[in-house]
Amino acid sequence: MSIFQSLIKKEVLHLVRDFRTVTVVLVMPVVLLSLFGFAISTEVNNVRIVAVVEQHTDETVQIIDRLRSNAYFTFEGIVPFRDVDGLLRKGRVDAAVVFRTEDGRLQHQILADASNTNMAQTSTAYLESAISYGTGPAVVSHTLYNPQLKSAYNFVPGIMGMIFILICAMMTSVSIVNEKESGTMNLLLVSPVRPRTIILSKLVPYFLLSCVILTLVLVLSYTVLGLPFSFSVIHVIWVTILYVILALGLGLLISTLVSTQVAALLVSGVMFMIPVVLLSGMIFPVENMPPVLQWLTCAIPARWYISAMRVLMVQQLPVSYVLTEVLILAGMTLLVLALAIRKFNAKR
Amino acid sequence: MDKEIVISVKELTKEFGSFTAVDHITLQVRRGEIFGFLGANGAGKTTAMRMLCGLSFPTSGSGTVAGYDIYRQAEEIKRHIGYMSQKFSLYENLTVWENLNLFATIYGMNAKSIREKADAAFRALGMESMRHVLVREIPLGWKQKLAFTAATLHSPEVVFLDEPTGGVDPATRRKFWEMIYRSSAEGMTVFVTTHYLDEAEYCHRVSIMVDGQIKALDSPEGLKRQYHAETMDEVFRTVAKDAKRGD
Q: Which end of chain A is more exposed for a tag (fewer CB within 10 A), N or C?
């Protein structure tokens, strides 16, 4: 067996014998995907509404019928105006519509419980469109690429951006620092093994593990979560591989900067995870952030990866549409690897 | 050059900025010799040893280890030495055999000679039944013997032992020194740092480092005679009493 092979074998034996970690690493993506794909939904359903009608006309009867039959609403009945405040306060209803006839024309007012801003905004918009239906000029809207507005489409790229940073950066940095702590790294450095062989033998097993996870994520996304399957999956795979290499490089870089496993965990867990969740556009759109934060997001690899994945996985466009993202990711990879290898060799 | 000189350094110096960790040390170690490298914490032992192992380059001075130049042939040096550090750094999650096999492979031995040498080593140590036990499950004393075996299986010309007996009981230390003597008798040079001054008595020759310099270098008997001392402990305290560094 060659030196490289025996070092890889050692790493694989360590992984296999650390059964708990491997299980966590393999189960986590599945749990995250199912959670975000099914349980967490930004749609608003079952908005409980009541109506206040001063004077019934044909028009108010029609509108109330439309509200009753609309799947997004649960119509709780017609109530006198003085009860509305109490119902909203007690949280029995989410919104109330008041109809009043002034100068022979029907006016309406919407009262919504905005203690949950997102819900209030969405339900107000639903109500307005349901009320004004058929009155103004008709607007026919089509939602492209995600006709059913499934939240899985939104979250799968985000989850992938998070999982690979977490697994690759965290696991490589912890495993290298572990060798520093236990002193085995010193034994390797004293031996005739070249530093680059040591580094590669550390990265290859985690790269292979990431490939297994990628397969798992893709199979889940295209089957259970129902993302559209097409030829673009090839591009998804190779852009992800680029991202995985970048994450491995980050892990290596962290391992050269810290000297304890706890520090490695903190740096990769806290310093990488929080920006990935908050600033990558996974949950909060980058376009809505103040300019300073928008500049900051440019430094976060996950932002570019997630944006590329949206185009490749959801829109299923060819890779030429995400050239900027891919080039930035490639640049970051080269930079991080160069820095990490320099730091690793600088010890003498 | 004398073929019997395995380690030879002259005026070896290592500076970190304005701090001189190792200050012009000169020493020679013969083949098969057990050389004790003593000094208080912070005296510069580890830095000196790292230069001899090819892990770090000296600021000035010259030296050869196993006949190879410490500046130009660091890679060759690494191939011809063994190294065991104060923490018995073996892979805890690998078995006894997997550890030996890994390190022997790294030092370029082929599968057949690894098997033969390992079999012989297991027999000599009485560890045959432990072959497939994970290292984290064997007692400390055994780990130490195993670490020494892993460092010497490829028959290096010099083996560097960095405080190899830290934290073990006197009986185990005694047995460990028997292993060192056997290797030395077979012609292996042993370069050992230690905190235990009774161990210094076992060495053929001893050097004492103070503040980066070698202040005394002779056989234990010679040193005791020179400093009119009964034990190496007294010698050490006399030599190191003016130390400014360390604790």
A: C
